[in-house]
Amino acid sequence: MLRGDMASWAGLGRALSACCLLGLFCSAALPFSLQGANEKAIINERPIIGILAQETDFKSFQKYGSSYIGASYVKFIESAGARVVPIRLNRSDEEYDKIFSSINGILYPGGSVSLETSEFARVAKIFYNKALEANDRGDYFPVWGTCLGHQLLSVLTCGEDLLTWTNTDGFALPLNFTPDAKNSGIFQDFPADLLQQMASEPLTSNFHFWSLSVQNFTNNEKLRNFYKILTTNVHNNVDFISTMEAHRYPVYGVQWHPEKNPYEWKNSTGIPHSKAAVKVTYYIADFLVSEARKSNHRFPNKSEETNALIYNFNPVFTGPFSSFDQAYFFD
Ligand SMILES: *[C@@H]1O[C@H](CO)[C@@H](O)[C@H](O)[C@H]1NC(C)=O
Ligand SMILES: *[C@@H]1O[C@H](CO)[C@@H](O)[C@H](O)[C@H]1NC(C)=O
Ligand SMILES: *[C@@H]1O[C@H](CO)[C@@H](O)[C@H](O)[C@H]1NC(C)=O
Ligand SMILES: *[C@@H]1O[C@H](CO)[C@@H](O)[C@H](O)[C@H]1NC(C)=O
């Protein structure tokens, strides 16, 4: 996409949103997330987002607990005006039912467990299925996957692991925007100058050995019917999907790590800390939290909410021995 194009579509999107607020007829060109016959005009200003815990598969973490959440994911969500509930592993179906009806969205983080046999993948599937059913009933519920979480979304959607080895471990990259990015939910509120910087400067952090290639995606009917590709990257001769969102559901995946730029300080050129890089993080978090504000799920009462929040746990300073500066541990 040309840089000039990008600037003009972002401006156009804002102009169209404004005209709809005035009640003018302009639905054809509206961004996806403002459309949808089922969508109710709910604004929940106290959104709570679940973050799925993951098995502590590396040794240095095991003495702290059997599962963990990198604290950067928590800060990322908090930075844009939402609170966090950890979704722990090995809970009963009844407990997951209760959590689902209490939270306003879920984030599947990065990591390194199996996409098919881990408890992380099993619980992710439970929430993914509930989210699709809820959205079909008009009960808005966003699902976000980052890195491993993005790869997991592809497996949940098509039922198989189609990933390709790219060894993209520790690289900051600029994004190649597709024409679909211009009508996307994710990028609709990004400032035009920031989108231009994202297209030309390495502002996205990549730490993944595997990738979903454009070729495998395009050859798979289930994936292609479910998601649109918003950005791609090329690494080791593989054109892979770096950002995608579902056509008809609030389901979003990024192969890169928006949460790392302001919050992870491992000495790696793969984590950009520039002013523009930190803004990218903020606008992604703002998008996800804005999606969560459209959900009206809530805890049955204040004490249930209080007991579920991540504030009941203290993060451990794990920077000296892991790629996370801080992590929360469970069980
Ligand atoms: C989950 O339960 C299984 C079976 O009891 C156990 O082996 C495993 O360590 C547990 N995992 C976590 C992350 O709690
Ligand atoms: C996915 O891509 C890899 C290499 O790019 C290829 O070896 C594999 O066969 C593809 N899988 C499918 C199901 O197309
Ligand atoms: C970061 O890593 C580079 C390359 O390995 C090294 O030259 C540099 O001194 C390191 N910086 C810090 C602050 O540790
Ligand atoms: C809060 O709700 C839970 C579950 O419905 C219930 O068991 C509990 O007694 C309630 N607590 C208060 C203080 O109302």
TrEMBL record:
Domain of life: Eukaryota
Gene3D superfamilies: 3.40.50.880
The name this protein goes by in its record: folate gamma-glutamyl hydrolase
Catalytic residue positions: C147 (nucleophile), H257, H257 (proton donor)
One cellular component term from this protein's GO annotations in UniProt: extracellular space
Top-level enzyme category: hydrolase
PROSITE patterns assigned: GATASE_TYPE_1, PEPTIDASE_C26_GGH
Gene Ontology biological process terms in this record: tetrahydrofolylpolyglutamate metabolic process
Catalytic reaction list: (6S)-5,6,7,8-tetrahydrofolyl-(gamma-L-Glu)(n) + (n-1) H2O = (6S)-5,6,7,8-tetrahydrofolate + (n-1) L-glutamate
SUPFAM superfamilies found in the cross-reference section: Class I glutamine amidotransferase-like
Lineage: Eukaryota, Metazoa, Chordata, Craniata, Vertebrata
PANTHER family membership: GAMMA-GLUTAMYL HYDROLASE (PTHR11315:SF20), PROTEASE FAMILY C26 GAMMA-GLUTAMYL HYDROLASE (PTHR11315)
Main location: secreted
Annotated signal peptide: 1-31
GO molecular function list: gamma-glutamyl-peptidase activity
EC numbers, comma separated: 3.4.19.9
Subcellular location(s) of the protein: Secreted, Extracellular space
Protein family per UniProt: Belongs to the peptidase C26 family.
Species per Swiss-Prot/TrEMBL record: Podarcis muralis (Wall lizard)
UniProt keyword annotations, A-Z: Hydrolase, Secreted, Signal
InterPro entries in the cross-refs: Class_I_gatase-like, Pept_C26_g-glut_hydrolase, Peptidase_C26
